[in-house]
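Working notes for the structural subgroup meeting. M.R. asked for a predicted model of this chain before we commit to crystallization trials. I am recording the input and output together here so anyone reviewing the notebook later can reproduce the run.

Input as submitted:
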Amino acid sequence: MNNIEQKAIDFLIMSLWVCFKKLIPLFIIIPGITMYLLNDKIKEIPTRYQVKGVVKMGYLKVRTFKSSILEKMSEVTKREPVATAMGHTKQDLKLVLETKFMSDRGKNKKILDDGPFITSISFPEESNLIVVFGEGKDIELAKKKVFEVISYLEDEYIKNKKVFMKTVRYRVKTLTEDHMKMKENLVRIDKVEKEFGFTPFLSKQKNEILIHETRLRYMLLDVQSQMTPSNIQDFELISVGTSSYPVTKRKLYYYIGCGALGVLATILLILGISIYYYQFIPPPVPVSPKLVEAK
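Returned structure, recorded in token form:
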């Protein structure tokens, strides 16, 4: 870059600086005009509605027991009641719900979108509740979105409860049949004892059957207790509440955008004015090297 080009660039920068100082009020006027012209559009942004749904997860308690007598029954392992009722543990259920109902929602999209959409699904600590939040400009559509989550949870509970009840009924049936067999054996031994009299062998057999019969009776009571309210709590909708609030944050984004647009327009205007007047200024006269040496 020669001396003339450097001076031209310095002069352009100086002209920009002069225009900037002279036209600095434009940085207030133009953004202000922009926000004023778009203010009516910003005011048309609808009020956002929030829907809060609270549900109680179903609870199915599985008891653990063993029996060498019950050949048809396998050992039952103890499982988490929530996992038994909903098909997942709390952590897994939350991940499934967020993936299914919130995967397409980004933070910025929530601010700019009218919805409806699910904003959050929370599981309070040490609680069997699920809290679902939804938002949208239409309160009915926002409610519908929240009820989609609730319906999904209820369907999962009903599906798992059917499997649970089928298993419990099968256990009750099997234990009842085995218990009746033990009672029939006792009746037969009593008949044999009446006909042939008391023998040590019959006494031993009778005691063993009595022990097994007592054990089966208690196991049957234990399994039947699984169908009591203390071990089965149905899925329940606690409450659904609605509230409305002005989208202040959303409007603020629009005002900031209008202000930034006005500032950009002002910068382009100043740059255009500087370039326009710069073309009428004659270029610097080159200085002869001999004159420089003479000086």
